[in-house]
Amino acid sequence: MTEVILQKLRELDISLDDMRGQGYDNGANMRGYKSGVQARIRNLNSRAFYVPCNAHSLNLVLNDSANCCLDAVLFFDIIQEMYTFFSASTQRWDVFRKYVKNLTVKPLSATRWSSRIDAIRPIRFQTAEIYDALEEISEDTSLTSVTGVRSRSEAKGIAEKLISFKFLCSLVIWYDLLCEINVTSKLLQSISLNIIESINQINNTKIFLQKYRSDENFEKILTQASYLANELGVQDSFSLNQFRTRRRKTHFDYESRDTPITDPKQNFKINFFHQILDNMLQSINDRFIQLEDHSKLFSFLYNISNVNNYEHLMKCCKDLQLALSSNDGLNSDINSVELCEEINTLQKHLQNENDPKAILQFICENKLIELFPNVYVALRILLTLPVTAASAERSFSKLKIVKNYLRSQISQDRLVGLATISIENQIANDLDIDDLVKDFASAKARKIHF
Question: I want to staple 114 with a disulfide (CB 3.0 to 4.6 A). Which of 87, 136, 185, 437 is the partner?
Answer without folding.
Answer: 185
